[in-house]
Amino acid sequence: MITKPSVLVARAVFPEVLHKLEQHFSVESNQDDIVFSAEELARRLQGKAGVFTTGSERISAALLAQCPDLRICANMAVGYNNFDVPAMTTAGVMATNTPDVLTETTADFGFALLMATARRMAESEHFLRAGLWTRWSYDMFAGAEVHGSTLGIIGMGRIGQGIARRGALGFGMKVLYCNRKPLDAETEAACQARHVSKTELLQTADHVMLVLPYSAEAHHTIGAAELALMKPTATLVNIARGGIVDDAALAAALRNRTIAAAGLDVFEGEPAVHPDLLTVPNVVLTPHIASATIPTRLAMADLAADNLISFLVHGKALTPLNAPAP
Fold it and tell me: What is the predicted pLDDT for the residue at 326?
């Protein structure tokens, strides 16, 4: 009798995804959705060939040293700053993510957050719910124009390009972008976007959208100095990763009206949120839900599961992030 490899599903997931995995593996699941400590995660990974992770599971060199049987970590996310990929490669552990399947949904949400931020939707809703709306006035919650304004995108991967298309084609926006390298001419033309320096983008854009991956080099891409370059009427939206923005500096800039408003779906040290951000009215805050539609989250979970199956059963990951030695 052939023994199935063992895998851990580290957080709660769709039952149909667990059923798919159970066709190939002995599965330890976590449908109670407990967030494991590093010690508990290492304990549960003993004897496991694979693990289905989310952003809450940190795969570090120290953890890998305790888990000699581990061969693959399949992240249910396009981002993977919870993975120490060089350490995984050294340890011979495959790393995978879920690109493409969440691009359009996340771009939709990024644009929705931009709209909510520019048009002061959260601020005005709080005002209404507090019973403070007693009459109309010409400047009541007058926000920033979106149609025909200038959109600046920092990070022009798949999601950034989706946001650029929405801005240019749907809202007649002038689109500027800053990226490690310019896009090819055909892609630039499809996005109707122009590559500029970060300084020019910050000084020129009416709305700045962050869609770059997190790395040590990207830490605090936007801090006090960068915020000071922006127009006092400008907005900032972060759907990238926590740590891209210095949240303390942003809270101060919002309080001082260095910029007009911000929209944040991600935070440094999340799920904790910098307390100063909770005290300023001109910020829209959402709990890391940019990819949160049922079809998209199911597609992400399916791809993570398929990476486990493809690698452990057939020897080849579908969306690898590294090439560890066998």
Answer: 72
For residue 4, give the amino acid letter: K
For range 117-124, the mean pLDDT: 97
Domains contained in the chain, number = 2
Q: Both 121 and 236 in a single domain?
A: yes
Is the pLDDT reported for residue 207 higher than 60? Answer: yes
Closest CA to 234 of 267, 258, 200, 210: 258
182-206 pLDDT, tens per residue? 999 999 999 999 999 999 999 999 9
pLDDT tens digits, one per residue of 53-92: 999 999 999 999 999 999 999 999 999 999 999 999 999 9
Q: What is the DSSP string of 246-279?
A: -HHHHHHHHHTTSSSEEEES--TTTTS--GGGGG
**For position 63, which CATH number holds?**
3.40.50.720
Catalytically annotated residues: 241, 270, 288
SS3 state at 157: coil
- Looking at the structure, tell me whether residues 306 and 178 fall in a common domain: no
Domain span at residue 264 reads 103-285
Residue type, 145: E
Q: Do both 159 and 274 map to the same domain? A: yes
User: What's phi and psi for 207, nearest 5 deg?
Assistant: -135, 125
Q: Are residues 112 and 25 in the same domain?
A: no
Shared domain check, 187 and 70: no
Give the integer Cα–Cα distance in Å for 30 and 263: 32
Q: What is the per-residue pLDDT across 166-176, written as a single tens digit (0 to 9) for each?
A: 999 999 999 99
